[in-house]
Amino acid sequence: MTLELQFQTILTMVSGGFYLGIVLDTFRRLTRSLAKRQLLFAFLEVCFWLTQTFILFFLLFLVNGGELRGYIFVAVLLGFSAYQALAATVYKRLLEWFIRAIIYIYQLFSSIIHAIVILPILFCVKVVWICLRAIVYAVLAIVFFILRVLFAPIKWIFKVIYQRLPVNFQKYLHKLAGFYSTITNIGKEWLKSITFKGRE
User: Residue 27: pLDDT band by 50, 70, 90 thresholds?
Assistant: First the structure.
């Protein structure tokens, strides 16, 4: 290995160590919330170090064909130490600022989409639901009115027949009518409760 190639290798590995410090701090910051999930965190940790090892070795392979020497590890450690001493504090601040900017942009776009898309859709759905409910109520009112008109002669006939029935049988029919009235009132209360919940 020539002196020039050794110098290129050392410079590349120092840069690799500097890069390793950057990606390590980025990985630690992004996985901070996963620290309590030990299995997932351990899996990500293993994947991270395997990936970075492959990247550093690939850089080494590009420079000197993958030939390992003792000074290569020293160069990586030197680059990592240089990052910790010179750039770690500034990079962490920039990383925090970048993460906050991304969160702010996401929240801004989410609010815009909610205001432009979600709220109009919800409003349209609510209007359609109110219109459908009004149509159903109108149809039911018309149907009940028609039935009342149709059954009016029948009701009058039954009333005439009822007046000609014996008194005891009329009392029995009164009891049945009371039971029917109770069931009807229960049904009306149930319908009112459903209507009230639907309005809420």
Answer: very high
